[in-house]
Amino acid sequence: MRVAIPLTEGKLCLHFGHCGTFAIVDLDMENKELKNREDVVPPPHEPGLLPRWLAEKKVNMIIAGGMGQRAQTLFQSNNIEVIVGAPSLTPEELVNNFMNGKLESGKNVCDH
Q: Which residues sit opposite 8 in a β-bridge?
């Protein structure tokens, strides 16, 4: 499984569209291990670009704090599962919580 996490200052960026980098993390779900992490700078933000860009990087899940409904729909149409309402933690904390069934997701902090 390959997960993308939008970051600001090394932690989850609560507003998806404002992140400066993405942590792209490869997970071994069977052994519950983080296999690899790569931090990448996204292309300049424009509507619809990030879902295609992350799909090209073989991402199949994104963990976000807040994300607009249109963006969620675009990710899903690119076969990328979306989890919103995650807390502002490090990528390692987020994916470890996810792999162990303890990732807290809640209210989507984005209203557009």
A: 11
Residue 34's H or E segment, with its range, is strand 33-40
- The answer on pLDDT for 109 being more than 60 is no
Range of the domain at 56: 2-24+42-99
Quote the pTM value.
0.92
Number of domains in the chain: 1
Flag whether 34 is in a domain: no
Supply the DSSP string of 63-105, one letter for each residue.
E-SB--HHHHHHHHHTT-EEE-S--S--HHHHHHHHHTT----
The residues that bridge with 3 in the sheet, in sequence order, are: 25, 61
Tell the residue number behind the tokens 């996204």, with chain if given.
Answer: 42
